[in-house]
Amino acid sequence: MLVAEGKKVQQKKKTVETELRSRTGQCVVDIWGGFADRESERRWREDTLQIIFSTSKSGLACLDGKISYEDAADPDRMAKFIEDSA
Question: Where is the Beta-lactamase-related domain (predicted)?
Answer without folding.
Answer: 23-58
